[in-house]
Amino acid sequence: MSSYKDFIGGSSAGLVSTLVCHPMDLLKIRYSVNDNSKLRPQYSSYLDATRKIFRAEGIRGLYQGLSPNLLASPIAWGLFFQGYNLIRPHFNFLDFSPSFQNLTVGCVAGGSVLAIISPLFVAKTRLCLQYETDGPKKYRGLTHCLAKIYRDEGVRGWYKGFVPGLWGSLYNSIQFAIYNHLKAWRCRQLGVENDTKLSTTDIFVFSAASKCLGKASIYPYQVVRARLQDHHTHYKSATDVIVQTLRKEGIYGLYKGMLMTMLRQLPNGIIMFVVYEHAKSLALLVP
């Protein structure tokens, strides 16, 4: 029954954070592939990107790719939180420190979830990167996007960027490990059990810290994944993305979009864990 509560909490957190933060996610994706190519609009800053998108497409332009994100994020976070708490007891036999155990369990849970929902993340990236304003767009929506990718590229198309995406599982693991470490430390300070619900202020601080530290540690994978999934360019592999990016744009190219990512982490991280903890508490009231 407790795993059901974890799924409810995680799904609720993923849904709310996506609704609030999607425009920032879109800006991050577009900036990540901002490679001076004539195939796409070029942005000199996030403000410039926002202005150009709004001028060309209106407010709807900032919500391109929302449908797969609304579907993927609740499923991903619901399964991640549920899987994490289901798997963790089975690792107790290993002589690991609690922090390393949290990291290992998070990697297993995150990688498993990514294998299930990777097609939705590919569709999100493709829809976010539709710049065309004149004439029909390549993808008419989520179902058309998934069907066309399968028809043109096969199952492999649904899993473009999967390998660098596994680094995202490591990020989730790092974030969750940091959050749990801080939460356990705070519970020890208060002299209460580790599963005790903390104050909103504690959750606010710990979730923001865990998000920012986790994201900063492995950010380049997001650039590599976005460029592999982009339908305007072609790369042979993740290594090819790294080599070409370094050659044409330098080390800075691997960190494009990081500022928006970090700005997004604060509201997203706070929403994620505050909603997760409160939704889980409400679910506990249901018999």
Automatic annotation (TrEMBL):
Keywords, comma-separated and alphabetical: Membrane, Repeat, Transmembrane, Transmembrane helix, Transport
Cell compartment(s), UniProt: Membrane
GO MF entries: nucleotide transmembrane transporter activity
GO cellular component: membrane
Swiss-Prot/TrEMBL Solcar repeat ranges: 1-90, 97-185, 198-282
Annotated signal sequence range: none
Domain of life of the organism encoding this protein: Eukaryota
Cited Gene3D superfamilies: Mitochondrial carrier domain
InterPro entries with a match to the protein in the record: MCP, MCP_dom_sf, MCP_transmembrane, SLC25A32-like
Topology of this chain in the membrane: Multi-pass membrane protein
NADP among keywords: no
Entry keyword Coiled coil: no
TM regions (residue ranges): 61-80, 100-122
Annotated SUPFAM superfamilies: Mitochondrial carrier (SSF103506)
UniProt family annotation: Belongs to the mitochondrial carrier (TC 2.A.29) family.
PANTHER family in alphabetical order: MITOCHONDRIAL NICOTINAMIDE ADENINE DINUCLEOTIDE TRANSPORTER 1-RELATED-RELATED
Identification of the protein by name: Mitochondrial folate transporter/carrier
Organism: Panagrellus redivivus
